[in-house]
Amino acid sequence: VLPEEQNGTDSARAPKVNCEERNTTGIERFTLQILNVSQDLMEFLNPNSSDCTLVLFYTPWCRFSASLAPHFNSLPRAFPTLRFLALDASQHSSLSTRFGTVAVPNILLFQGAKPMARFNHTDRTLETLKDFIFNQTGIEAKSDVAVTKEDWEGPLPSVLTKGIDWLLLFSVLFLASFVLYATLRTESIRWLIPGQEHEHQE
């Protein structure tokens, strides 16, 4: 079970996660990377390293994910020595189950390939995200970073996309089929029980 970030101020305490900051030499643009359906999160996390990665589980039709998007898009500029990834939880359901993602958006801080902390604030803004990262790692954000027009445009979408949740649809159809089957089986079994048929004829 992951420890959840408390709503109180922990800035006076020592960092909980000792992150190895990556070398930013030669990197000109600090952006969020979105994993597609064929990419595995574990390929992007090095189990033999102590570097830290903030991973967002989202869905494109979730309004909370959409409102968080511009703030999360701006984080790589605020923390250039950390890595930021995002993945569509509906396309990576096995990972969602593995890391206990029961609702989106869900933000996890990884050290290497191990989840260390979960962001647990209802107020999802750049400032609360910066506070969370600082409280966990002790790494200070760049003070001049703010949410810009470009952050609203991407890479993480801030506009809801309409789509069908095929997993939910399949689950509903499976449940309805099972209930129908169980009801029909119950009726047929009732006629096979000795004594039930005579009662029906009377």
List keywords for this structure.
Glutaredoxin; 202 residues; five-stranded mixed sheet; alpha/beta; 36% helix; single chain; elongated; 5 strands; TXD15 protein; Thioredoxin_domain; 6 helices
What is shown here, in short?
The chain has 202 residues and is of the alpha/beta class.
Task: Explain how this protein is built.
With 202 residues, the protein is of the alpha/beta class. The protein has a domain at 33-152: Glutaredoxin, CATH 3.40.30. It contains six helices and five strands. It has helices at residues 63-78, 93-98, 126-137, 149-153, 166-192, 196-201, and strands at residues 33-35, 52-58, 83-88, 106-111, 114-118. It has a five-stranded mixed sheet with strand order 1-3-2-4-5, with helices on one face. The longest helix has 27 residues, at 166-192. The radius of gyration is 24 Å and the shape is elongated. Residues 8-138 form the Thioredoxin domain. InterPro entries: Thioredoxin-like_sf (IPR036249), Thioredoxin_domain (IPR013766), TXNDC15 (IPR042418).
Count of DSSP strands? 5
Chain-averaged pLDDT: 79
The first-to-last residue Cα distance is 60 Å
Estimate the strand proportion: 5-15%
Largest sheet: 5 strands, mixed
Strand order of the largest sheet: 1-3-2-4-5
Poorly predicted ranges? 7-11
Residues in helices, as a percent range: 25-40%
Characterize the overall form: elongated
Q: Count helical runs.
A: 6
Q: Roughly how many Å is the radius of gyration?
A: 24 Å
Write down the secondary-structure element order.
EEHEHEEHHHH
The CATH superfamily of the domain at 33-152 bears the name Glutaredoxin
In CATH terms, what is the fold-level topology of the domain at 33-152?
A: Glutaredoxin
- What's the architecture of the domain at 33-152 in CATH terms? 3-Layer(aba) Sandwich
GO cellular component, one term: cilium
InterPro entries: Thioredoxin-like_sf (IPR036249), Thioredoxin_domain (IPR013766), TXNDC15 (IPR042418)
Organism: Tachuris rubrigastra
Keywords: Membrane, Transmembrane, Transmembrane helix
